Amino acid sequence: MPRSALRTFARAVPAAALLMAVPACSTTTPDTAPTASPSQGSAGRSATGQPTREPSEENSAMRIRLTIDGHSVDASLNDSATARDFAALLPLTLALDDFQDTERVADLPRKLSTDGAPASSGPKAGDLAFYAPWGNLALFYRDGHPSPGLVVLGHLTDRDDITRLADADRVGIQRAS
């Protein structure tokens, strides 16, 4: 089975199992506040149920530069713990593979911390994200669907650069000077 088919299956099965296992209503236990079910959406809530800001509302913590197949592209990381952990890995040079005609993915040298990260994020074209279950980086060239464990790290600064991602084979990532 091709690698892309395995990734599609690996993302679809846990999401479907989660939807089937949780009732479509709010639940309250004696020790917790009400939590949203998957049908109500979990975007905007951390893994602990605390409200979080959308990635576009985050303050830019750091400017970075991507080199996509020889072309310089500016981006910024948000001020999340996961984005700061990613920045600690820089500089990086990564081989990219396509995933679902929506994103380019690459394996990172290690998994990143997801402390305080939203349980799910709905990525937009131009977003850089970390997919915690696989430990990989995702560069979105089309809008994606919310996925449990997907943490948006930042975004490309110039929307015109997004088209470069669709066919990219390699990316270099470093702090902008």
Care to describe what's here?
The chain is α+β, with helices and mostly antiparallel strands and 177 residues long. The model is unreliable at 1-6 and 12-60 (pLDDT under 50). Helix content is 17%, strand content 32%.
Task: Please give the structural blueprint.
Elements: H1 3-21, E1 60-68, E2 71-78, H2 81-87, E3 92-95, E4 97-99, E5 103-107, E6 120-121, E7 127-131, E8 136-140, E9 147-148, E10 150-156, H3 162-165, E11 170-175
Antiparallel strand pairs: 1-2, 1-11, 2-10, 3-11, 4-5, 5-8, 6-9, 7-8, 7-10
Give a quick set of tags describing it:
alpha+beta, 17% helix, disordered N terminus, 177 residues, 11 strands, two-stranded antiparallel sheet, nine-stranded antiparallel beta sheet
Q: In this structure, how is the largest beta sheet organized? A: 9 strands, antiparallel
Helix content: 10-25%
Report the mean per-residue pLDDT as an integer.
76
Strand order of the largest sheet: 3-11-1-2-10-7-8-5-4
Question: How far is the N terminus from the C terminus?
Answer: 43 Å
Shape: globular
Parts with pLDDT < 50 across at least 5 consecutive residues: 1-6, 12-60
Structural class: alpha+beta
Beta-strand share of residues: 25-35%
With helices defined by DSSP (H or I, 4 residues minimum), what is the helix count? Answer: 3
Provide a quick synopsis of the model.
With 177 residues, the protein is of the alpha+beta class.
